[in-house]
Amino acid sequence: MATTPETAVGARAKYEPVIGLEVHVQLLTRSKIFCSCSAAFGAPPNSNVCPVCLGLPGSLPVLNREAVEFAVRAAMALNCEIRETSIFARKNYFYPDLPKGYQISQYDKPLAEHGWIDIRTNGASKRIGITRLHLEEDAGKSLHEGFADSADKTYLDLNRCGVPLAEIVSEPEIASPDEAHEYLTRLKEIILFTGVSDCNMEEGSLRCDANVSVRPRGQKEFGTKTEVKNVNSFRFIRQALEYEIERQIGVLESGGKIVQETRLYNPAEGKTYGMRSKEHAHDYRYFPEPDLLPLVVDAAWQAKIRQELPELPEAMRKRFVEQYGITEYDAHVLTATRALAEQFEMAAKAAENPKRVANLVQGELMGRLKAKGLELEQSPISMKGVAMSADLVESGTITGKMLKDLYDLCFERNQDFPEVYKTAPKKVESVDLLTATTTSTISGNMPLFIDYRSGKDAVENVLFGIAMKKLQGRADIPKLREVLKWRLKEKQIAEIIASAPDEFFPGQQLKLIARDQQINSIDVDLLFERTDGTRVAIELKVPPDVNIGAEQLEQLTKLKSVPGGATEVWLVGHQIPYFVRQRIEAKGIKCVQIESQKIREVATKLNIPLRPDAISDTTP
């Protein structure tokens, strides 16, 4: 019976849950724990069996040394004390998938004890004790579905009999389903880093039994516990615990008593159901296994195993933060698996900026892998490629947009980044093209330019984004930003000159006929016409952009010969160095220098806004 919605909140506040978890981890050995049969998953039913794992008369177990080393490695990673001499024991119970009628396990003298895992809960660290870690063999598997007569019969697959397990038992110190989920997440993470198991819950490599009871808040004595058996996902374990806690509170609130029993969780219904009464230790009639000697893991053997222990997640996270300058969040994400952590470090060591590598791995690489359902090992982009791409972005050789496009190509072609980069369109660095693009951007967005001219600095970034989009994200970012800055300055001066040409060119009788005009594909800042029909094209230049590219100079020279062009071409600026004047005038282009003060005076006179940084008073 569960609590009603009206009483649930109040009843829950009166009680506190107490949770302990028993986790069975299948060790990643090639053979079983007491015989040479394969421990691989997925073989045809009852094909990986022999007299030993079937418990036939006369067969004797022989302990798998690698299983012992894997269990000790896991115990060390979980901060356990290793017992130098441990004892195997027979755990007697009868079940169809246990052909011997007993399981070889460990009882009062387990392999390891007194470990712990630190978890994060409510923003703080909490230490959960580990009571013990012991070795045992797995049982077979009962198949209740998938056959024509499954309604009447149960089939047995005994391939799993004798597969080595490490059972890890926590202290009853877990206070909520969320803490249980966090504990299991950290435990799995540590076990994966040690390499002793693949922790594949779908294949049964990691299984969890949850013991849960409730007691009045503040009471020291434990309540009667139930065991939720063999839940195959952390999400379902959390859901099963939430339901079972509410169920027990409901029973107590209605005046009932909790029965100590084993229960199964039905994820489709979100409920637990009683399966059988819960056994006590004496029900199993443990006694020392007569066919196995005591297991001795002496100091020398322990030292050898400890030497082979890899760097563990928490230590690695701390080092990544200190060594590579990444955030704790980044370090946490990048150490989710040992493979990811090692791949990241490989790239971080090769790249100029490890932080950028961290961002690329988490965002661009992992995002694409997830979208395509690929594992890291299947990535077309190697960590060498990630490092190379990070350096190209860091140096400004490619833009962020170009990088995204290149990564997309890598996944489309199944090619590594260096190979794709060789044939990819390169970054736009041409000053002439950048100038033309920023000019069209400004002239096409005059309301934004007016806002910028009036002092709204943020508009520059908006115009930059528009220009970058025009260039399909392939522009050299520093160069584009620099060209945009100077074109914005030149545009301000051009607007002032266009409003009062007689103030700057007295006696010329110039009438404005076009701004930002293209004449035969040649860009012109200002185009004036005299009363006699002759035309003057003006190109504005502001320091330090007072020089002019050869291509643009050639284009300006052509203005005097193309249809609808200009009779004269002037280069106008308020600071034009002598060497620039010589070079330009040699091409028949007139240089006209106007004073900074004159520009300010006319702007004030005409009430045209002029940003303070638009002109400089420095004399060339």
Could you explain the architecture of this structure?
The chain has 620 residues and is an alpha+beta fold. Helix content is 40%, strand content 21%. The strands form five sheets. It has a nine-stranded mixed β-sheet with strand order 2-6-7-10-1-11-12-13-14. Helix 20 (578-585) links the parallel strand 20 (568-573) and strand 21 (590-593). The model is unreliable at 1-7 (pLDDT under 50).
* Physical arrangement of strands within the biggest beta sheet: 2-6-7-10-1-11-12-13-14
Average predicted local confidence, pLDDT: 88
Shape: elongated
Cα radius of gyration in angstroms: 38 Å
Q: Helix amount, in percent?
A: 25-40%
**Strand runs, count:** 21
- Unreliable residue stretches: 1-7
Secondary-structure-derived class: alpha+beta
Give the amount of beta strand, in percent. 15-25%
Count of helices? Answer: 21
Blueprint (SSEs and pairs):
Layout: H1 5-14, E1 15-26, H2 51-54, H3 65-77, E2 81-82, E3 85-86, E4 88-92, E5 102-106, E6 112-121, E7 124-137, E8 141-143, E9 155-157, E10 164-170, H4 177-194, E11 206-216, E12 226-231, H5 234-253, E13 261-266, E14 271-277, E15 287-288, E16 295-296, H6 299-307, H7 313-324, H8 328-334, H9 338-350, H10 354-372, H11 383-394, H12 400-413, H13 417-423, H14 431-443, H15 446-453, H16 459-470, H17 477-499, H18 501-504, E17 511-519, E18 522-529, E19 535-540, H19 550-558, E20 568-573, H20 578-585, E21 590-593, H21 596-606
Parallel strand pairs: 12-13, 19-20, 20-21
Antiparallel strand pairs: 1-10, 1-11, 2-6, 3-16, 4-5, 4-15, 6-7, 7-10, 8-9, 11-12, 13-14, 17-18, 18-19
